[in-house]
Design goal:
Blueprint (H helix, E strand, L loop, with lengths): L17 H7 L4 H26 L3 H18 L2 H16 L5 H25 L4
């Protein structure tokens, strides 16, 4: 499995839709900032677990990829969450899967979300 094809419409999704999550949290900007801080704090652990599981088995990688997709979804990283969920489906359904390619998709999604989240945090008002 190589790069996730654009024809699936992932590029139409926002990298980060923090405002949607803030609305979903009852307009609790501070609550979202706390969730965002936990996400950023967990990034090194997620990246390390991805690397370790990608060099192991597809079963090990499925669990970590699922966690990454959920983490991306929680912060509103809609494009990354969709891409990672797609790779998770491929991983679950295909017997011949390039684990390192799946790891790359997940790492790229985390990096894009981190950059967008850092920009949002810098621009958003502190309460």
């Amino acid at each position: 499995m190589g790069e996730v094809p654009d024809k699936l419409g992932f590029d139409d999704l926002p990298i980060l839709d923090a405002d949607w999550v803030v609305r979903d949290l009852g307009h609790d900007v501070q609550g979202y900032r706390e969730v965002a801080a936990m996400f950023i704090e967990d990034l090194p652990i997620l990246r390390a677990r991805l690397a370790l599981s990608a060099s192991s088995t597809s079963a090990a990688l499925v669990a970590v990829v699922h966690e990454v997709a959920n983490s991306l979804g929680v912060i509103g990283a809609r494009r990354g969450a969709a891409r990672v969920r797609m790779t998770e489906r491929c991983l679950r359904e295909e017997s011949e899967t390039d684990l390192l390619a799946i790891e790359r998709v997940a790492v790229e999604a985390l990096s894009s979300a981190e950059s967008a989240l850092q920009a949002w945090l810098a621009a958003s008002p502190r309460l």
